[in-house]
Amino acid sequence: MSDSGFWLQVEAAGQHLLLPPTAVVEVLPLVASQPLPGAPRGIEGVVLHAGGFLPVLAWRDLPACGASSAPPTLLVVLRRFGLPVVRVVGMVSLREDAWEPEPEGLPKGWSGGRVHLAQGWGRMLDPERMLGLLRELRIQA
Q1: Structure confidence by residue, pLDDT tens digits, 90-121
Q2: 97 Cβ partners below 8 Å, 6+ apart?
Q3: What is the rounded CA–CA span in Å between residue 37 and residue 54?
Q4: How many CA atoms lie within 13 A of 93 on its CB side?
Q5: 21 with 111: CB under 8 angstroms?
Q6: Would the pTM of this model clear 0.85, i.e. be above it?
Q7: Domains plus CATH for the chain?
Q8: DSSP secondary structure letter of residue 37
């Protein structure tokens, strides 16, 4: 994954997240997900998308995620899962040297680093790391 260029900035899980636009399939109005019996931690449920089932993240189950000040209204569809988000802030251009590692003691799980934005710190959501974290949570269950 490239660490420079344009990023989609969203607000979710009580923080600003940066998504690589190459990983974003589309942004849709949020629809209620259907719970899965025996679903692992980290999965809220599934929604129908493009003729198949798309797992939707449960932010509350993931490390370093807080409560949002507002309920999610949008679903950002990535290739393998959906992210409930409060809002899309817009596209931001970031230099490669703007990124820094997460502070010590913070679970790294899904983040590829952080960057200082006008609104405060933003965290890079790395889709591959997120999938790895979801696999770990499934194994631990």
Answers
A1: 999 998 888 998 887 666 678 889 999 988 89
A2: none
A3: 15
A4: 0
A5: no
A6: yes
A7: 5-140 (2.40.50.180)
A8: T
Question: CB neighbours of 113 closer than 8 A, spacing ≥ 6?
Answer: 3, 99, 100, 101, 102, 123, 124
Pick left, alpha or beta for residue 14 (phi over 0 → left; psi -120 to 50 → alpha; otherwise beta). Answer: left
Kindly tell me the sign of the dihedral angle through the C-alpha atoms of 106, 108, 113, 114. negative
pLDDT digit of tens for each residue in the chain (141 aa)? 444 589 999 999 999 999 999 999 999 999 999 998 888 889 999 999 999 999 999 999 888 887 788 999 999 999 999 999 999 999 999 988 889 988 876 666 788 899 999 888 999 999 999 998 888 888 775
Spacing of C-alpha 92 from chain mean position: 16
Instruction: Please state, in angstroms and rounded to a whole number, the distance separating the CA atoms of residues 88 and 113.
Output: 20
Taking the C-alpha atoms of 4, 115, 80 and 106 in order, what is their torsion angle to the nearest 10 degrees?
140
